Amino acid sequence: MMFGLILIIFVAYYMFSSSNSRGSRCMGHQSHENTPLDILNERYARGEIQSEEYLERKQELLR
């Protein structure tokens, strides 16, 4: 019985620890937050925006 309680506490600690690497992986979230430039690159790669718009927005972000 005591072993089960300790196991439950350990699992709860592991899941809800403040560490982003373990907590994020356990909860299924990415630990990397996308920057505006990352989002712009992804939109360009998916073909959502043309190269002219991409270059204009990239230049604006890098100022």
Topology readout:
Elements: H1 2-16, H2 20-27, H3 36-45, H4 51-61
Helix pairs in contact: 3-4
Describe this structure in words.
The protein is mainly α and 63 residues long. The protein folds into two domains: 1-31, no CATH class; 33-63, no CATH class. The protein is built from four helices and no strands. It has helices spanning 2-16, 20-27, 36-45, 51-61. The radius of gyration is 21 Å and the shape is rod-shaped. The N and C termini lie far apart (61 Å).
Short description:
By secondary structure, the chain is mainly alpha-helical. It has helices at residues 2-16, 20-27, 36-45, 51-61. The chain has two domains: 1-31, no CATH class; 33-63, no CATH class.
The dominant shape is rod-shaped
SSE arrangement, N to C = HHHH
Rg result: 21 Å
Number of strands: 0
- Structurally, the number of domains stands at 2
Total count of helical runs of at least 4 residues: 4
Main sheet: strands, sense, barrel: none
User: Beta-strand level of the residues, as a percent range?
Assistant: under 5%
User: Can you give the mean pLDDT?
Assistant: 79
Helical content band: 55-70%
Query: Would you identify the regions where 5 or more consecutive residues have pLDDT less than 50?
Result: none
N-to-C terminal Cα separation, in Å? 61 Å
Derived structural class: mainly alpha
Relevant terms:
4 helices; single chain; 2 domains; 63 residues; mainly alpha; 0% strand
